[in-house]
Write a structure and sequence with these properties.
CATH superfamily of the largest domain: P-loop containing nucleotide triphosphate hydrolases
Helix content: 40-55%
CATH topology of the largest domain: Rossmann fold
Radius of gyration: 22 Å
Distance between the termini: 50 Å
Order of helices and strands: EHEHEHEHHHEHEEHHEHEHEH
Shape: globular
Number of helices: 12
Strand content: 15-25%
Strand order of the largest sheet: 6-7-5-8-9-10
Number of domains: 3
Length: about 350
């Protein structure tokens, strides 16, 4: 990532399901060398894992060094402080890891500002905890080992946030002007939405003839990309958007609100769900995505697109699962790799806009 050396990482978890954390680590360019598991119903209030497991983790780290310990969960500032103080290694929870990936992938001015805003809002409570709990001393990750005086750093955060808010507001106004101009010109808008790594960029290429970057990594798209739908007289613009992920805190969602607005203001939303996922993962991603879209998006302006059908073995069952939650929504299976279902999807899109123009 940006010329950075590959960091060795380990995962600390109280949940046996670490697949998403593993995928995030891979997307962050980390070398995942081992995992430490403690089966608990909920995190320990002070140290995330129990005291015995914390001591065991310290011993493991002393013999098998890593650059960063990835915590499969969201740490409270007090937990973050205790873990880094005890383990003497940079500890990165799920949100911090997502922010690091965002920081690496942001290319547009707006995306970079959104990432900066989210990162600063994430760091403020950590800073308060470190000021409260440790007036001095080296910190292995946050604040870079005491490079800044904490009060000066906090003031810098406040000034940066104020500047970022002003810039984002101006960019948001520019975006709204472009949206109104498209409406005046009679341009129809289609938004590709869905869980991260669902195949949105691949589908954009398949239905528009564009050649945007396609990576088998989460959050390969942070900035929106817009292209014209192939094969129709009406001007229909298709926009690729940032992928969804479950259980993001409010400040993260708010930081990327302008990107999500591209979905909410669209005339038609294509919700992409990976049909090759196992049943539990498929249902989790489906419900998470629908929870973000509803009620802002009307079901009549929604098409559920089951992607990667070339890898799916139970497509009919997946369609039934969608209809069990949203009975009357149009559901189409496609493969951007083989082209299967693309014509059917294209016809459904044109039918939707023919209906709107009546």
């Amino acid at each position: 990532m940006k010329g950075r050396r590959t960091r060795k990482a380990a995962i600390l978890t109280i949940d046996e399901n670490v697949s998403e954390m593993e995928e995030l680590a891979y997307s962050a360019g980390m070398d995942l060398v081992y995992e430490i598991i403690q089966r608990r119903r909920r995190p320990h209030p002070a140290s995330f894992v129990g005291k015995g497991k914390l001591q065991e983790t310290k011993e493991v780290l002393s013999t098998r060094n890593v650059d960063v310990l990835l915590v499969n969960g969201v740490l409270k500032p007090s937990q973050h402080y205790l873990l880094e103080s005890e383990l003497k290694v940079e500890c990165m929870d799920r949100i911090r890891l997502v922010l690091e990936i965002f920081d690496d992938r942001a290319s547009s001015r707006e995306a970079r500002l959104q990432v900066q805003r989210a990162r600063l809002l994430y760091e403020i409570p950590l800073l308060r905890e470190w000021v409260h709990s440790a007036k001095s001393g080296e910190h292995p990750g946050f604040l870079g080992g005491g490079a800044y005086e904490t009060d000066a750093y906090y003031e810098m955060i406040r000034r940066q946030l104020a500047r970022i808010e002003v810039e984002l507001e101006k960019l948001g106004s520019d975006r709204e002007l472009r949206r109104k101009r498209r409406a005046r010109l009679g341009l129809g808008t289609i938004a590709l939405a869905g869980y991260t790594n669902a195949g949105k960029s691949s589908l954009l290429n398949a239905i528009t003839g564009e050649k945007v970057l396609v990576e088998d990594k989460v959050f390969s798209t942070l900035s929106t990309t817009t292209a014209r739908l192939d094969g129709c007289r009406k001007q229909l613009l298709v926009t690729d958007t940032i992928g969804f992920i479950s259980n993001l805190p409010t400040f993260m969602i708010e930081s990327f609100k302008s990107t999500l607005d591209e979905i909410f203001y669209a005339d038609l939303v294509l919700l992409l769900i990976d049909s090759s996922d196992d049943e539990e993962t498929f249902m989790e991603k489906l419900t998470t995505s629908l929870g973000i879209l509803f009620p802002e998006v009307d079901v009549t302006d929604l098409i559920v697109v089951l992607t990667k059908t070339d890898r799916a073995t139970e497509l009919a069952q997946r369609i039934d699962m969608v209809r069990s939650i949203v009975p009357h929504v149009t559901t189409i299976g496609v493969s951007s790799l083989t082209g299967s279902g693309i014509e059917e999807l294209h016809a459904a899109i044109l039918e939707h806009f023919a209906y709107l123009s009546r």
